[in-house]
Each structure stands twice: as C-alpha cells, then as structure tokens.
C-alpha cells in the first residue's frame, strides 16, 4: 500500500509506488504534453545522471550508445553546432545548440533536445509537422520539470 507524505507546503508525495507506475505516469505525460500536439512524432525522457530512459512514446527505442551521444552533445555546444548530431542513422545539421537546448534537422525531419536539472527531453518531428510547435511543446514540458526541480 502506498503511503502519503505531507510536506509543509500543502503538497504531498506518494511513497512506495513502484517504478513501473512512475514510468507509466511519465509516459502519459509525454502523450498528453507532446504527442497529442500532433507535431511531435516520437519522444522520450532520459535521466541525465545515468542515461536511463525513464519513459518514451510508443515505438521510440533509444539505445544506450544513442543516449550517450545525445547527452554528450550538451558538453560542447559550439562543437555540436559545427558538427551536428548523428542520430537514427542520419546526420542532423544543428540549428541551435547551447547549454539548455539543441535543435537539429535533417531534410524535413528534426530533433529537439532540452535539458532540465536532472532530465533530458528528446523529441522528433517529421515532414508535415511544424518544428516551432514541437519546440514549444518540449520547452514547456522542460519548464514544468524545472519548476518541480527535476
């Protein structure tokens, strides 16, 4: 049975919830905040500390070497801007790279990475999707996690 822990800020925290339930909640959040915009093709939430994929949209499988490469892109933004990012067997040209956000494109497909305190949100868009809507949705979700300290 889960235990409620009330803090002094009128918030509560549920203790004893299995990781599978937490991952399901994150998957639902990805669906509601990103995929439902119809301008995010696939997405995932990755823990920065260890590269563990915490949640992903249906069919979006990130391998450890891909995650490592994507997380590493934040270490040297000028180099990332210059060299781009190799992802999903394609070379993406970087259109923005700084300490918090990386946007890249390859033909009419794109990749958006946004870093929070403990996570990185990864999203892709395809042809017939608006890159600006994808970016805005990912940045808003990142802001939500930043407000929560995650």
Terminal residue distance:
25 Å
Instruction: Give the topology string: H per helix, E per strand.
Output: EEHEEHHEEEEEH
Radius of gyration: 16 Å
* Uncertain stretches of 5 or more adjacent residues: 1-14
Beta strands, count: 9
- Helical percentage: 25-40%
Sheet with most strands: 7 strands, antiparallel
Trace the largest sheet across and list its strands.
Answer: 4-3-9-8-7-6-5
- Residue-averaged pLDDT: 88
Number of helices: 4
Structural class: alpha+beta
Which geometry do the CA atoms define?
globular
| Strand fraction | 25-35%
Describe the structure concisely for a colleague.
This protein is an alpha+beta fold and 150 residues long. The chain is 32% helix and 33% strand.
């Amino acid at each position: 049975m889960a235990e409620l822990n009330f803090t002094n800020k009128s918030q509560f925290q549920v203790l004893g919830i299995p990781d599978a339930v937490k991952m399901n909640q994150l998957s639902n959040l990805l669906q509601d905040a990103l995929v439902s915009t119809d301008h995010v093709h696939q997405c995932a939430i990755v823990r920065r500390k260890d590269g563990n994929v915490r949640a992903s949209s249906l069919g979006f499988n990130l391998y450890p070497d891909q995650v490592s490469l994507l997380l590493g892109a934040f270490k040297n933004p000028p180099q990332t801007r210059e060299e781009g990012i190799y992802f999903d067997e394609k070379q993406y040209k970087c259109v923005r790279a700084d300490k918090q956000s990386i946007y890249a494109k390859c033909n009419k497909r794109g990749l958006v990475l946004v870093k929070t305190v403990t996570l990185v949100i990864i999203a892709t868009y395809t042809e017939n999707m608006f890159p600006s809507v994808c970016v805005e949705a990912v940045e808003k979700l990142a802001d939500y996690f930043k407000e929560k300290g995650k």
